[in-house]
Amino acid sequence: MERLCLPLAGEVSVRWRRNGRARRVSLRIDLRAGAVAVTLPPRAGREAGLALLREHDGWVAARLAALPAAIGFAEGALVPVEGVPHRIRHVPDGRRGVWIEADEIRVSGDPCFLGRRVADYLRREARTRLLGRVQSAVRGSGAPAPRRLAIKDTSSRWGSCSSDGTVMLSWRLLMAPPAVQDYVVAHELAHLRHLDHGTAFWRLVEQLTPHRAHAEAWLKRFGPELLRTG
After folding, report:
1. CA-atom Rg of the chain in angstroms
2. pTM
3. pLDDT at 4
4. 3-state DSSP call for residue 180?
5. CA distances from 204 to 60, 65, 168, 184, 217 (A)
6. What DSSP letter does each residue of 95-132 carry, written as one string?
7. CB-side exposure of 74: number of CA atoms within 13 Å?
8. Each residue's pLDDT expressed in tens, for the chain with a length of 230 residues
9. Domain YgjP-like metallopeptidase spans what residues (predicted)?
10. What is the SS3 assignment for 181-197?
11. What one-character DSSP code corresponds to residue 211?
């Protein structure tokens, strides 16, 4: 990560990435890091990336200014779990590690490790709950079953499906309402049968979930906040 100063955007963090398959220099906003990601093709130098940054200075400034505030896993922070806000509360004398009670994420032990323990707990919860949704979709609607389920922390994609039958889901979906989780699960399971986004694919998605329109609108509106949490 590098700090650069642009006339309109001011001081910004820039992440440089070289991609052997890229055909041109490109920019995107890394929501999680609150930074600009610059992708360079094999023969492009940093000068080309800097030129593109300067050319789109106003766009960078507007996009960074529109980012939701970052929310860390700290005492008193509000973090959604399946769409319901939960306040992080440190319980020094507790003997249960991390647990959810009365719309709170309660954390015992040394406060120095609170953030890490909350993050670990939410990732474990995501694996358990999202696996349950995958299994329910397969049993209840006849969706294709994945060979493997991977739970990861991605920078932009909520899910993906590989040709070997592996389905990947972002652990951050744990923070989204159940209907949104169901849609993303259905979307990726449908890709096990149709790897494109053709008519047959969308027809299968509609068969697997009634929540497509609501979930897509919700993720467009609130997805950036989930990526800025933690």
Report:
1. 20
2. 0.86
3. 84
4. helix
5. 38, 39, 19, 13, 20
6. SSSEEEETTEEEE-S-GGGHHHHHHHHHHHHHHHHHHH
7. 3
8. 899 888 888 899 999 999 999 899 999 999 888 999 999 999 898 999 999 999 999 999 999 999 999 999 999 999 999 999 999 999 998 777 999 999 999 999 999 999 999 999 999 999 999 999 999 999 877 778 899 999 999 888 999 999 899 999 999 999 999 999 999 999 999 999 998 999 999 999 999 999 999 999 999 999 999 999 99
9. 27-221
10. HHHHHHHHHHHCCCCCC
11. -
Residue 224 per-residue DSSP state: H
Residues contacting 109, CB < 8 A, separation 6+ = 92, 94, 97, 117
Looking at residue 8, its pLDDT comes to: 81
Distance of alpha carbon 139 from alpha carbon 183, whole angstroms: 16
Looking at residue 199, its amino acid is T
Q: Pull the structure tokens for residue 26.
A: 């490109």
Pure H helices in the chain: 46-55, 57-65, 114-141, 178-191, 199-208, 212-227
Helix-helix angle 199-208:178-191, to 10 degrees = 140
Q: Which residues of 19-31 are buried (b: 16+ CB within 10 A; e: fewer)?
A: eeeeeebebebbb
Structure tokens at 5: 């100063």
Distance CA 114, CA 117 (A): 5
